Amino acid sequence: MNVVCLDMEGVLVPEIWIAFSEATGIPELKRTTRDEPDYDKLMQYRINILKEHGLGLKEIQDVIATIDPMPGAKEFLDELRACTQVIILSDTFEQFAAPLMKKLGWPTIFCNTLTVDENGMITGHVMRCEKSKYTTVKALQSMGFETIASGDSFNDLGMIQASKAGFLFKSTEQIKKDYPQYPAFEEYDDLLAAIKAAL
């Protein structure tokens, strides 16, 4: 049995931190996993900037409420879920993901958790497990599933490399250049066709 594992931000919905950066006018918050492979380092960097500006979880959630899935994302997901099992593996946080999952028709998502103090300030993050996307793919395989994976960033490469088929989607020119062995797509129809062919 197959399970398709998809990244969320940059693949199905716009990058949350980029949207928040634009809404607040803080350009430093545009930094994502496309720029920084070390996720803990990236999150600490973000938390420090939020603290410096006195911004908490509510301000981020207010921006998330205005974000819609990318055009065609829900239709792509609906068609994919009609022919195979799909899990979204994301390094985002449950406090961010729920309104976006609602707009996508409540697909299954495995993600992480933020630690938030009594004033609503983000103090840290708890990863579901180490190398969460890679570890989850290996766990699914240990249960007898075959995995197909797609994502756009450095933190997706582990699950892509570990799967029977892997695809880059809306990735950076640098990642596409560094990993030419993985087909790279820009349109949902092309990604859907490639996944269906790999099932």
Summarize the structure in words.
The protein is α/β, with parallel strands linked by helices. It has a domain at 2-13 and 69-113 and 128-198: 3-Layer(aba) Sandwich (Rossmann fold). 44% of the residues lie in helices and 21% in strands. The protein has nine helices and seven strands. Strands 4-3-2-1-5-6-7 form a seven-stranded mixed β-sheet, with helices on both faces. Strand 5, helix 7 and strand 6 (165-169) form a beta-alpha-beta unit. Helix 3 packs parallel to helix 5 (94-103) and helix 4 (73-83) runs parallel beside helix 9. The chain is globular, with a radius of gyration of 16 Å.
Instruction: Note the beta-strand portion.
Output: 15-25%
By DSSP (H or I, 4+ residues per run), the number of helices equals 9
Q: Fraction of residues in helices? A: 40-55%
CATH topology type of the domain at 2-13 and 69-113 and 128-198: Rossmann fold
Class based on secondary structure composition and strand pairing: alpha/beta
Q: State the CATH class of the domain at 2-13 and 69-113 and 128-198.
A: Alpha Beta
Low-confidence stretches: none
Give the averaged pLDDT, no decimals: 96
The major pleated sheet works out as: 7 strands, mixed
Q: H/E series, N to C?
A: EHHHHEHEEHEHEHEH
General form:
globular
Give the CATH superfamily of the domain at 2-13 and 69-113 and 128-198. HAD superfamily/HAD-like
N-to-C CA distance: 9 Å
Strand order of the largest sheet: 4-3-2-1-5-6-7
Q: Any idea what the radius of gyration is?
A: 16 Å
- Indicate the CATH architecture of the domain at 2-13 and 69-113 and 128-198: 3-Layer(aba) Sandwich
Counting DSSP E segments of at least 2 residues, the number of strands comes to 7
- The quaternary organization reads as single chain
